[in-house]
Hints:
- By secondary structure, the chain is mainly beta.
- Helices cover 10% and strands 46% of the residues.
- The chain contains 1 helix and 12 strands; from the N terminus they run E-E-E-E-E-E-E-E-E-E-E-E-H.
- It has one helix at residues 141-156, and strands spanning 2-8, 11-19, 29-32, 36-38, 44-47, 60-62, 69-72, 77-81, 86-91, 97-103, 113-122, 129-140.
- The strands form 2 sheets. A 7-stranded antiparallel sheet has the order 1-2-12-9-8-5-6. Strands 3, 4, 7, 10 and 11 form a 5-stranded antiparallel sheet that branches.
- The longest helix is centred in the C-terminal third of the chain and has 16 residues, at 141-156.
Amino acid sequence: MEQWISFEENVMHVRYVFTYNGTKTHEPRHQELPAIFLDASLDTLVTYDGETPWMNNPVTNIAPGLTNEYIKMTENWVAYVNERGHGVGAYVPSVIEATCYRFRDKNGGDVNCSYVAPIRTFALTPGLRYSYDAYFTIGTVAEIRERFLKIHSEISTGKRPG
């Protein structure tokens, strides 16, 4: 696994390349692109999961439970936010599904987290080389969505590799 990180204004861009050098073909499975673990104080998952992406329609707020749940993110982004609506967002242009959960230590300990992972399903096969881009930012839901819309527009118009 290789990664390159760059910063563009208020956004971190990470380019990932995964090369599988094994000789065994594995069954198709969900691959986390990437797995994201955040502080448990970011307790509300926000995304757009409707039928008309990038039209500024209302977002969906989700309260993940203790077991993996699967969601659609038709604008390719998801964010965990706190009670003030401020948090961390991730945009993976090639992905429209994610898995998520929240872990809370029943004994009151500090092993708590909010987890989300954009996912794609594919098999690991000999010689596989898979690459993808992910973008991360912090802010309000409106700021996060606006920054990701700008990147989406640049990819769509060819101003940015996608």
